[in-house]
Structure formats: structure tokens, C-alpha cells
Specification:
Chain lengths: 264, 325, 373
């Protein structure tokens, strides 16, 4: 069952003369973790933004839960899909609690305030992510890793079936990277449809059920990581001799062999 | 969500109520003893006809500018923005100047003209901002607001130049300095419904205004159109500002200082900051106006009192607390 | 639950405030708000003021306050009534000068340093407050408190005539008010009738020379102003009639050169520079040498009997503009008005109208600056 179906999606920015998305075709399976892999500038963020109706109008077809995205209101969409952006400015000293509470907006009427139940949901999410101890800290004072987790918490508070994360591990140290990837896997296991973009093929091998490799605005490979990610493909896409090393039948590592590195 | 701050809210509310009652009953150049209204008839008149409308107007003035300040700061994602940012004060000043020069002696028409031009300034800012092809949406609005402000300011300058220095110029200068000296019930009643409605509306959607602080993309992902929400709250905030500016003239610093103090005392989240600002704004403005009308035998322009004390308060609160990034 | 209580409280508060406001606005609290007696047998006087309102004031009138912007000309006119000394209060400090201290030895007691606020005025419990027509917002507030307000204008001959009669009633001397009104109008008519037809009128420039922040500005009065009127009555052609605008019009030197006035009258409303100093400056200034008035030496500093800002200048809408008119007439047409004895008329003004002794009048005349007589 596909949660999201994208067929021949083309999109260009209003000020540019070229398409950034040049006919993307992709199916996102429901209840699984899908990794979107690709170099900088391949169009990953743009794809997400079109999906979330932040950018538009587009050419081609997008179906979410079987419905044409063109006919879905952002209001309705926000209850179905939640987004964790790559970066967020935090200018006002909101507390973690208040910040994550904003994620309840899709479930609140225009004139309503969050209820006790909304607060409960937020506390649960924070506990799930191990953030209970910083509930009353001010967001601008948090570390990079903590801010990212708070951002994810807000998206989780939306209680949507689909979760999109744009390069969630960027700028994080390995400890935080692992924590975030762990959350992604747990969300997938609990039945959510999770899509995340990354540069690092290792992350795809670690947590993804499905991978789509994007290059130059097109999907150049799709499927489970073991079949979709090959050394030749990565070398073509990234332009450097990358090795896919199968350690055992549970673990695959991707890197550059020191010999190949020396001969560059 | 009020939770830990309930104590502070209650304290603020009590101080506000007590101050306003005392201000009406006791504070003023004429020594009023409210228990002697039968032995001195003037007392009743002063309390009911001079002080009560004036104190109420001062309170609404403070409330409107404060809540407009909070709203604009959220809408422009900048805690240092004041309600005047889109030129509404200068527009209102221009309208008042027009009235002083061409429709003299009619204070109600002056109020009307000044409110209309205040709103025109908003319209002009929005129109010009869509013509600018540089920068993000918010930057465009700020730039447009600068241009509109400067234009109306020049217009006021021309009016000052054309004004009769003996008859019209003093009145115009006094208006520009801001003050509530002639306020009676009819001025209050002409301004209060609109201002109160605007304040009430912003109060009701106080939680939703929080959204504007996030990145526009994130706001969309949460199901709201940021442009529409921003336009809506800015318009309501400007309506409130224009309504009170038409009565009181240009009063600065409150829209900047009160939200700032309230954030320090109540945390940054708007569903606390807005009600706190409403109360603190009313309290401060009542105190400032008491000073303006009762500290000396003659009237001190309220704008001067507000600027002076507002600036001092602002610096005081900036220099407290733990320095943080 | 808590929320709805708050909403209800707010609603009740709003409703209460609105009803109080509405009640107070609608209800007319008549003079009964003031001390006790509303007996119909009480004497009242009735005046129709400059704004056309009919005002009934209860007798006796023991205290009159003149305050607000533009009040000093009103005070100069008020003092033409001997009774004024007894009842005036709340006067502006701009009145403090030798002349007015002579007229009213107790002047210092009546002066206040600032414009009084509403509550201050009510503290003084005046029987009537006289305000300039532009002070409506203050006046309306005073009337809300039951204090009588009379507006005067004093901007031109017509309003002088009307307002003198009104003030006469207020200061309990209707006959004198009538007499003064006639004094002004008769002099104006008399001078006007002797003035020559337009063809023989010299071009007269009335110049207000002001120095603000180091910058010199030449200003001429608007076409509807008293100064323009004075020049016309005195038999001159007022060049300032051609300037647009209602306020003081700032003109460039080029414009003055183009006008080529035959006569220049100078005011500065200040001691630095005084009109006489400016006169010397202009007579010596190279740029001005070709102006007809300079060449013929017909440049005159308007007399000033107080030398305190604009108070004593014989042009401004203070009471002595009528003397300025006589003086101007003699300067413009010395032959036509050769029988007009300025000194005599001035002395008569100070003694008869302001009630000064001959000795005091002489003292005042001695300190008049400008080209007097």
C-alpha cells in the first residue's frame, strides 16, 4: 500500500528557467521507513516542500492517501503529514513545552487554545524522546542536538500518520545522530510512514526499509537498500569511488577505500 | 498554561484595578474627596466627567499599544518592533495635521481623519511591499513601512510649515507630542468600541499568534497560511493603534517596552504575554497620564512622559537577568 | 469554568462602564452642580460670544480667568475696563511688563507660570472663563463641569467691536464696552475716509523679520490679517495681499525686490534684534540699496510700548493696534494727516482708556521703542 504516489513530478522555481524536479516518479510505502538519498542540490528539499504544499504549483501527479494533493487543503494535510525542517531559527525564548505545543495546531480551531489533553500529548511525546528533563528550558539555550529533538517532538505532537524529516542528522554529532535515527526506526516500527533525506548511505542501510536515490532532479534508483545502493551508482552520483562493503548479512558499510582515496 | 504564573497575573490585576480606582477618585490637581460629593458639587463633576473618561481612555490607550506591540513583534518575528513600524503613527499624525489646518475646532473630525490616514498608511505599506522585488516578505514590509513613514512624516513637516504659528502650529505641536488633555466622554465613546473590539480579537486568538514566530514553511506544515494570518493580525493591530492614536496623538515606547517586560516576567509565549501586556499597558499608561495631568499646574504632554519613563524602564529591564545568546 | 467567569466579569465591567458613560453623556448637569442657589430671582447677564453661543452668567462675577493659547491679546483688551483689575486671575506671564504693572499694581498675584489645566481652573472657582475661539476642547471640558465659558476672537475690527461689547457686559460696564467699540470703529472710519484713492497709494511692505536658529526669514502677514487691514485703512497698498496662504508667509528677498515697496514697516516681536536694529541693518545692506523704500529712507520700526516679545508691538492683535493705525497713517501720508497729533492721542489712550495718571503715561511713552512718534 502506498502512502504517497508521485508520478512524473516537474517543478521549477518562479524565478528560474529550468526545472528543479525533472519528472520524479516514486511510491512511498505505508508504515515503512523510506530514505531519500542524493547529493546537495539534487532536489530533495524541493521535493519535500512541494509535497507539503509549501511550494507550488507543480506539474504531474501527487496522491496522498489516494487523494490528489491539488485538492487537499493545507489544513487537512497538516493532520496527515508532519514535517521536521532542516533548520529552524529560534528567536523568541519559548520553553520547550510551549514550542512543542505549537505542534497541536492542526487539531485546534482558529479561536481555540490547547486543552489539558493537548498538554498531556505533548508531555508523552517529550517523554518518548527522553526530553522530559528539559521541558521548561528555553529553546534558544539548547544544544544543536536538543533543538533537533525538540523539532522532532513538535512534529510528533501533530499525531500524523506520515512524518517527513529533511536531513535530520545534519550538523549532529554521532551520539545525536544515533538518537535521531533510533527515533526514526521506532516511528517506523510503530506504524508511521517515515520519509527522511540524507547524504549518508550508511544511514539508509541502518534504518531504512526502502531507499530512493535522487540525482539532478530525478530518481535514479529505488528499492530496498541492499539492491538500490550499489558502488557504481554511488560513484556515478557523487563522483568519487565509493565502496559498498557488506560486513555480514546484517550490516553493510559504505565508505571510501584508503587506496582509492590516495589515488584521487 | 497560566499555571506557575497565576500569582503574578493576580498581583498585576489587583494593582491595575486599585490604581485605576484611585486615579479616578483621588489623583488630580483638584483635591477631590469622593465622600464629600454633596458638600462640594464640583467633585462629582470632576470625577465623572473629567477624570473617569480620561483614565478609561488612558487604559485603553495602554492596552491597545501594548497588545499591538506584541502582535507586531510576533508578526515580524522581531522582539524589537513597535506598532509604528508600518507608518501608522505618521499617517495618523498627517490626518490630524490636515484636520487642524483645514477643519479647525472640530475634535471629532480630527479623530476620524487621523484614524483613516493611519489605516491608509497600512494599506500603502502593503501595496508598496508587493511592488518591491528585493528580500523576503517581512523585509519588504519593513522597507515599505519605512518609506510610508518617511513620506507621511514629510507631509507633516509641510503642514507644520504651512500652519499659522500663532493659532495652528501650537495645537499641531501639542498633538504630535501626544496627550489626553481634552478627552471627554464623547472622545472616549468614539474610540472605545473599535479599539476594544480589536484588543478583544487579538486577545481571543492570542495562542494562534504564536505561530507567526515560526518559519513560514513550518507554519504551512502546521496547516495555516502564514501570509493570511500575518495580514489579519497586522491589520487588527493597526486598527487598534490608529484608533487610539487618533485620540491621544503619537505615544511611543509603550508598544516596545510593555511586551518586553511581560516576556521577562511571564515567559515568551503569547497566551500569557498578551493578557499580561494588556494589563501592564493599562497600568503604566494610567500612571503616566496621572503624572501628565497632575504633576504640575499645567499639562505635561503625555508623549514626553511616556518616552522618558518608557525608555528608562526599557533600559532597566534590558540590564536585568542572565545574559544569554 | 474559570474562563467563563472571567468573560462574565469583563462583560459586566464593560456594560457598567458603558452605562455610566452613556448616562453622564446624556444627562445635562446644569448650574446646579455649582454652589446651591438656583433661585430664578438671581440676576444673570446674557452674552452672545464669538462663536455665536448664548451664554448666561450668574451675577455677581467675582472671578474671571483668561487662559489658554492666544490669551494675551484678550488680557490687553480686558484691562481697558477698570473693573477687570478686581476680578481677573490665572493670567499668562507674558503680560508681565512695565505698562501692565502700572495698569495693575497687583499683577504679580494674578499671574500663573503655565497654562492652567482643567482641574486647576476649577480649583480657582471662576465665575466665567474667557478663551480664544481655538480653545474649544478646554472650553468644552469646563462647561461639562458647569463653569461658564465665553469665547472671543479679537482678530479684526469686526470682532473687536463685538467682543468689546461682550467684555463690557462681563466686566459690568456695558457703557464703557460700547464706548470702546465706538472708539475703535470711529477711528478706523475716520482714517479710512481721509485716505486717498488707490492710484495715489504707495506700496507698503509690512515685514516681520525673524531670526530662528541663526536663519533670517522675511515674513509678511496673510491677506485677511489685521496688519494688512491696517495698511489699507491708513492709505497704503498692502503688498502682502498678494501673498498666498493664511499664516505668516515667508518670502524671499527676490520677491521683495520685485515688489519694490515704497514704504517698509518692520516688526520683530523681540529685542534681539529689535525693529530699530533691523531698520539700521537694512538701510546699510548693499542688497537693499536699490529698493525704493531704502533709497527714500522710508523704513520705519513699528513702536513697541512693552518690549516683551509681541505684547507691546503696535501691530499685533493686542489693544494698541489702533495706535499703530494712527501712527502708520501719519507715516504713509504725512501731509494728509498733518493735523493728527500722535503723541496726544497716545497719551489720551493711556490715561483715559487704561486709567493711568499723566505721570505714569509719560513714563510709558518715554520707553516706547521704534520710530515713535
Amino acid at each position: 500500500m502506498s502512502k504517497v504516489v508521485i508520478r512524473n513530478l516537474r517543478y521549477r522555481y518562479p524565478t528560474s528557467k529550468e526545472d528543479v524536479l525533472k519528472g520524479v516518479t516514486l511510491k512511498i510505502p505505508e508504515g515503512k521507513v523510506t530514505a531519500l538519498l542524493g547529493p546537495n542540490g539534487s532536489g530533495k528539499s524541493t521535493l519535500f516542500k512541494v509535497l507539503l504544499k509549501v511550494l507550488g504549483p507543480y506539474k504531474g501527479d501527487i496522491y496522498v492517501n489516494g487523494e490528489d494533493l491539488k485538492h487537499i487543503d493545507v489544513d487537512v494535510l497538516s493532520r496527515a503529514v508532519a514535517w521536521v525542517p532542516q533548520e529552524e531559527d529560534s528567536l523568541f525564548p519559548y520553553t520547550v513545552l510551549d514550542y512543542v505545543l505549537l505542534g497541536r495546531t492542526p487539531h485546534l480551531g482558529f479561536f481555540n487554545m490547547p486543552s489539558k489533553r493537548d498538554e498531556e500529548i505533548v508531555h508523552n511525546v517529550l517523554a518518548q524522546l527522553g526530553l522530559s528533563s528539559i521541558t521548561h528550558r528555553k529553546v534558544p539555550t539548547l544544544s544543536g542536538g536538543e533543538k533537533k529533538l525538540v523539532s522532532i517532538a513538535r512534529a510528533l505532537a501533530q499525531e500524523s500518520e506520515t512524518l517527513i524529516l529533511d536531513e535530520p542528522t545534519a550538523h549532529l554529532d554521532i551520539g545525536n545522530k544515533v538518537r535521531v535515527l533510533n527515533i526514526i526506526r521506532r516511528m517506523g516500527d510503530s506504524g508511521k510512514t517515515v520519509i527522511f533525506s540524507t547524504h549518508d548511505p550508511n544511514e539508509a542501510f541502518l534504518v531504512a526499509d526502502n531507499v530512493a536515490i535522487m540525482n539532478g532532479g530525478e530518481i535514479v534508483s529505488r528499492g530496498p537498500p541492499s539492491s538500490a545502493i550499489t558502488g557504481e551508482l554511488l560513484e556515478k552520483v557523487y563522483g568519487v569511488p565509493v565502496t559498498v562493503y557488506r560486513v555480514n548479512d546484517k550490516q553493510t558499510l559504505v565508505g571510501i577505500h584508503p587506496e582509492s582515496f590516495k589515488s584521487l | 498554561m497560566v499555571g506557575a504564573y497565576t500569582g503574578r497575573f493576580l498581583a498585576l490585576a489587583c494593582i491595575l484595578i486599585a490604581t485605576s480606582i484611585l486615579s479616578v477618585l483621588f489623583i488630580g490637581r483638584y483635591a477631590t474627596n469622593p465622600f464629600h460629593t454633596t458638600s462640594d458639587e464640583m467633585t462629582l463633576g470632576i470625577i465623572l466627567r473629567i477624570r473617569l473618561p480620561r483614565v478609561l481612555t488612558a487604559m485603553i490607550l495602554g492596552m491597545a499599544l501594548s497588545v499591538a506591540g506584541v502582535t507586531m513583534q510576533s508578526a515580524f518575528k522581531n522582539p524589537l518592533v513597535s506598532p509604528e513600524i508600518l507608518g501608522v503613527s505618521q499617517g495618523a499624525a498627517f490626518g490630524a495635521a490636515l484636520a487642524i489646518l483645514f477643519l479647525p475646532g472640530d475634535p471629532l473630525k480630527m479623530q476620524l481623519l487621523s484614524a483613516i490616514f493611519g489605516l491608509l498608511a497600512l494599506l500603502a505599506s502593503y501595496t508598496i511591499s508587493s511592488a518591491i522585488k528585493y528580500g523576503g516578505r517581512i523585509l519588504r514590509l519593513v522597507l515599505a513601512g519605512l518609506a510610508v513613514s518617511a513620506t507621511f512624516s514629510a507631509g507633516v513637516g509641510i503642514m507644520k510649515f504651512m500652519a499659522d504659528p500663532l493659532k495652528q502650529l501650537p495645537e499641531l505641536t501639542f498633538w504630535l507630542l501626544g496627550g489626553l488633555s481634552g478627552v471627554m466622554w464623547r472622545n472616549f465613546l468614539y474610540m472605545a468600541p473599535l479599539a476594544t473590539a480589536a484588543i478583544a480579537f487579538l486577545f481571543v486568538i492570542r495562542w494562534r499568534i504564536n505561530l507567526l514566530v515560526l518559519d513560514d514553511d513550518v507554519i504551512i506544515s502546521l496547516g495555516t497560511d502564514p501570509r493570511k494570518l500575518r495580514a489579519l493580525v497586522i491589520t487588527i493591530a493597526v486598527i487598534a493603534t490608529a484608533a487610539v492614536t487618533s485620540v491621544a496623538g503619537i505615544i511611543g515606547w509603550i508598544g516596545l517596552t510593555v511586551p518586553h517586560i511581560c516576556r521577562k516576567l511571564f515567559g515568551a509565549e503569547n497566551s500569557r504575554v498578551i493578557p499580561a501586556s494588556i494589563m501592564l499597558g493599562a497600568l503604566l499608561m494610567t500612571i503616566f497620564d496621572n503624572i501628565a495631568r497632575a504633576a504640575a499646574a499645567g499639562e505635561i504632554p503625555l508623549g514626553i512622559v511616556t518616552s522618558l519613563l518608557g525608555a528608562i524602564l526599557f533600559v532597566l529591564f534590558l540590564s536585568r537577568g542572565v545574559p544569554h545568546e | 469554568m474559570r474562563k467563563s467567569i472571567i468573560v462574565i466579569i469583563v462583560f459586566v465591567l464593560l456594560a457598567a462602564i458603558s452605562s455610566v458613560a452613556y448616562y453622564v453623556w446624556l444627562s445635562s448637569i446644569p448650574g446646579s452642580i455649582r454652589s446651591g442657589e438656583t433661585s430664578k430671582s438671581q440676576e444673570t447677564i446674557e452674552v452672545i460670544d464669538a462663536l455665536g453661543r448664548t451664554v448666561k452668567i450668574k451675577m455677581p462675577i467675582n472671578r474671571v480667568i483668561i487662559t489658554g493659547k492666544g490669551s494675551w491679546p484678550i488680557m490687553t483688551v480686558a484691562y481697558m475696563f477698570p473693573n477687570a483689575k478686581k476680578v481677573l486671575y490665572g493670567l499668562s506671564s507674558s503680560l508681565n511688563s512695565t505698562l501692565f504693572r502700572m495698569i495693575d499694581p497687583n499683577l504679580a498675584d494674578k499671574i500663573v507660570p503655565v497654562e492652567l489645566s482643567v482641574e486647576e481652573i476649577s480649583k480657582a472657582k471662576p465665575d466665567v472663563v474667557i478663551l480664544k475661539t481655538t480653545m474649544r476642547s478646554l472650553g468644552d471640558q469646563l462647561e461639562e463641569l458647569g463653569i461658564h465659558v465665553v469665547y472671543v476672537d479679537l482678530e479684526n475690527l469686526e470682532s473687536y467691536v463685538r467682543d468689546l461689547r461682550v467684555l463690557g457686559k462681563i466686566f459690568m460696564d456695558e457703557r464703557r464696552g460700547e464706548g470702546l467699540a465706538r472708539y475703535y470703529s470711529e477711528w478706523v472710519n475716520s482714517i479710512a475716509s481721509m485716505a486717498p484713492p488707490s492710484a495715489e497709494r504707495p506700496k507698503v511692505l509690512f515685514l516681520y523679520y525673524s531670526v530662528k536658529g541663526g536663519e533670517v526669514a522675511f515674513n509678511v502677514p496673510g491677506s485677511g490679517w489685521l496688519q494688512t487691514f491696517m495698511v489699507e485703512v491708513a492709505g497704503g497698498y498692502p503688498l502682502s495681499k498678494e501673498a498666498p496662504g493664511t499664516g505668516w508667509n515667508t518670502v524671499t528677498f527676490e520677491q521683495i525686490a520685485r515688489w519694490a515697496p515704497n514704504i517698509i514697516f518692520i516688526v520683530t516681536y523681540s529685542n534681539k534684534p529689535s525693529p530699530s536694529e533691523v531698520k539700521e541693518r537694512l538701510l546699510r545692506d548693499e542688497m537693499w540699496t536699490n529698493i525704493p523704500a531704502i533709497r527714500s529712507g522710508r523704513v520705519y520700526a513699528v513702536p513697541d510700548d512693552c518690549n516683551v516679545a509681541a505684547l507691546g508691538s503696535w501691530d499685533a492683535p493686542g489693544s494698541r493696534w489702533i495706535l499703530g493705525l494712527l501712527w502708520m497713517a501719519k507715516k504713509i501720508h504725512p501731509s494728509i494727516f498733518q493735523d493728527l497729533d500722535i503723541k496726544e492721542e497716545v497719551e489720551r489712550f493711556y490715561t483715559k482708556i487704561y486709567g493711568l495718571s499723566k505721570a505714569d503715561a509719560e513714563k510709558v511713552i518715554a520707553q516706547i521703542t521704534g520710530d515713535f512718534p
